[in-house]
């Protein structure tokens, strides 16, 4: 995910110099997509880069060029292990970037991949990864335009890191922003949550659990495209809930839009092995990373047509309306369970599952 | 530098599957920009990504969008140490990407930076690096549109790696390609070579040499812009000679254009400390990396106006015509020294100075 800078203080942005980041050293949590990441982005990157920022950023930056609106994004991939059921760093590096463009309403038109490789990586692993990138790009119907390769000494990387940048053309019918979200709007989710995070966790072998799960890594553009066609005039906001999961994305929405976000626990699609693993390990599935799902907020008038559109796409059969936007409690995510219990769910703090993507 | 795929075999590109890379494991040389890098790119990346390639690649990929020609590039930076006289990884990450766009004839309009950080990196180092990125972007007059941040465990990176992607608008007057280079054309160089590579080498402290040198890291766009204005109709080819140095860039030109490239050793600008260090260490300055210079081939009619244009830009006073294109010996770089001695200079083989950028 592109770092999100939704609340750029204009003073910092203009003076370009008011840094408020005093953490003594960088910890894993700074890369987890939750509270520490936000502190790093808002305290250090936003003030320093703010003076030159063209647009407030969400998943991709947008630019007007030659009368067209372009979206551009960049994502680093450091997943461990490199290969896991359902995919590898290669698929993630394509789909993660394609999805950041897609949830910005942009059709992906080109990718660049940069490999930082540890000396000693077997040539066969590099070949498999490169094939995975090529195949995922072909499935997502987006060309790999090129890239760069750097090699560092043995022990100075963990096999292979990939950074992918992507360019897309924003659909002219789409106008997305947290600010346009209104009480009464509904929240859609494209499919079951947690498959990617739990799959990678189990693939590490640190936990003695066996479950038939696969990463959900895929391009969500086919679903987004159908959603835009069906409900563009009611489409307010989209996000792919990767690091930090659904809870972090919806907390950011609640803060950025100053609304209350309410979800109904029993409407959130989830596979039994994910539910079971989370219960055993004390994890909240709402914090688990996904790599092939997205959240959308649409007006209540467009809710049913939007849901029908998502469900009509192969792989979208489990899409659901999982919640709604309310006036209050503002800036929070409330999760309502059957029988009337309610709990506040915060964004991810710390990082129970580092290097998930 | 974006990986260069100039000789994409069409069969491989169309079938997308004929991999000819059988190296048992990845070595430092695969990232050095010389022979092994070319083997990796031509044997693995080109066949697999070729099926989706839109354009033959040089320093940046170009795309037609909305009637405009855009250039897009991505570069990984893994320099060691992170800071050195005259700059840091932060300046390189901006200028290296800006320069790849510039030598594609493109005015840079936006950058994205992705940080892969090792846990334990002092917050102060990250702050200095981020300021270096911001300041270099301001000097190069290009906005940082956003980026991504990932953190890996202590021991799984070397402080900090940065990948930068950049978007630019290609000047409509420019048409660059190795294929357009003709015997009789002249070769220009923007200034003295080797400052960056030797500065970083000395900053590592492995060599007991003291020299007052600074990295030449800077944006070359102001010089390129002036060159385009003065000689666009005679401008054939440009390249920034980073990894692998001037010799590797000119060897690639000789092969891609099937011409002989001849340079005159005594016309290649070089500072005394670079010459001295290279003599002591047995390095060829033509193989040393530069981060603020570029090579250009222009028609002989435009040679003098092109040189005058470069020299009129602050920092371009030492620009020189260093050689010429000939019919033969084809596909080689010949370096002529005073008193009539001649030597063939190949592209870099192996990597005497790893992680220079």
Question: What's the CATH class of the largest domain in chain A, please?
Answer: Alpha Beta
Q: Largest interface, with Cβ-Cβ < 8 Å?
A: A-B, 91 and 91 residues
Strand order of the largest sheet of chain A: 9-11-8-12-10-13-14
CATH homologous superfamily descriptor of the largest domain in chain A: PurM-like C-terminal domain
The radius of gyration computed from the alpha-carbon positions of chain A, rounded to a whole number of angstroms, is 20 Å
Number of domains of chain A: 3
Helix % of chain A is 25-40%
SSE ordering of chain A = HHEEEEHEHEEEHHEHEHEHEEE
| Low-pLDDT windows of residues of chain A | 3-16, 52-57
Strand content of chain A: 15-25%
Polypeptide structure, described:
- 2 copies of one chain form a homodimer.
- The first copy, chain A, is 29% helix and 24% strand.
- Chain A is globular.
- The termini of chain A are close together.
- Chain A has a 7-stranded mixed sheet with strand order 9-11-8-12-10-13-14. A 5-stranded mixed sheet of chain A has the order 1-2-7-5-6, covered by helices on one side. In chain A, strands 3-4 form a two-stranded antiparallel sheet.
- Chain A has helices at 10-15, 35-50, 89-102, 123-139, 195-203, 221-231, 245-257, 272-281, 303-311, and strands at 61-65, 68-77, 83-84, 87-88, 106-118, 144-152, 160-170, 186-189, 235-239, 260-264, 295-298, 320-326, 332-336, 342-344.
- The longest helix of chain A is centred in the middle third of the chain and has 17 residues, at 123-139.
- Chain A contains 9 helices and 14 strands.
- Mean pLDDT of chain A is 91; it is low at 3-16 and 52-57.
- Chain A has 3 domains: 1-53, no CATH class; 58-170, 60s Ribosomal Protein L30, Chain: A (2-Layer Sandwich); 178-344, PurM-like C-terminal domain (Phosphoribosyl-aminoimidazole Synthetase, Chain A, domain 2), CATH 3.90.650.
- Chain A is of the alpha+beta class and 357 residues long.
- Chains A and B meet through helix 2, strand 1, strand 2, strand 5 and helix 4 of A and helix 2, strand 1, strand 2, strand 5 and helix 4 of B.
């Amino acid at each position: 995910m592109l770092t999100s800078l939704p609340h750029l203080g204009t003073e910092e942005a203009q003076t370009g110099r008011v840094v408020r980041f005093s953490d003594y050293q960088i910890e894993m949590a700074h890369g987890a997509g939750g509270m520490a990441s936000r502190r790093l982005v808002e305290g250090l990157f936003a003030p320093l880069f703010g003076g030159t920022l063209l647009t407030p950023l969400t998943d991709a930056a947008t630019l007007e060029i030659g009368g067209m609106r372009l979206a551009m994004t960049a994502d680093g991939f450091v997943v461990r292990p490199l290969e896991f059921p359902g995919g590898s760093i290669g698929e993630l590096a394509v789909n993660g970037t394609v999805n950041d463009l897609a949830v910005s309403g942009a059709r992906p038109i080109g990718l660049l991949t940069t490999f930082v490789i540890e000396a000693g990586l077997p040539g066969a692993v590099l070949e498999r990864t490169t094939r995975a990138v090529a195949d995922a790009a072909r499935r997502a119907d987006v060309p790999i335009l090129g890239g760069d390769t750097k090699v560092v000494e043995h022990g100075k990387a963990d096999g292979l890191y990939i950074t992918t940048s992507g360019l897309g053309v924003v659909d002219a019918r789409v106008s997305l922003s947290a600010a346009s979200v209104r009480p009464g709007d509904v929240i859609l989710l494209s499919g079951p949550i947690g498959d990617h995070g739990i799959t990678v966790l189990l693939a590490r072998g640190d936990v003695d659990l066996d479950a038939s799960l696969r990463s959900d890594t895929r391009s969500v553009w086919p679903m987004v495209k159908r959603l835009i066609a069906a409900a563009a005039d009611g489409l307010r906001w989209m996000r792919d809930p990767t690091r930090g999961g659904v809870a972090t994305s919806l907390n950011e929405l609640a803060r950025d839009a100053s609304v209350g976000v309410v979800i109904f626990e029993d409407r959130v699609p989830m596979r039994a092995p994910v539910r079971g693993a989370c219960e055993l390990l004390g994890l909240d599935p709402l914090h688990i990373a996904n790599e092939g799902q997205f959240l959308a907020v649409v007006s209540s008038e467009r809710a049913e047509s939007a849901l029908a559109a998502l469900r009509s796409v192969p792989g979208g059969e489990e899409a659901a309306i999982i919640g709604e936007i309310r006036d209050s409690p503002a800036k929070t995510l409330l999760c309502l369970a059957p029988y009337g219990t309610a709990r506040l769910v915060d964004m991810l703090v710390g990082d129970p599952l580092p290097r998930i993507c």
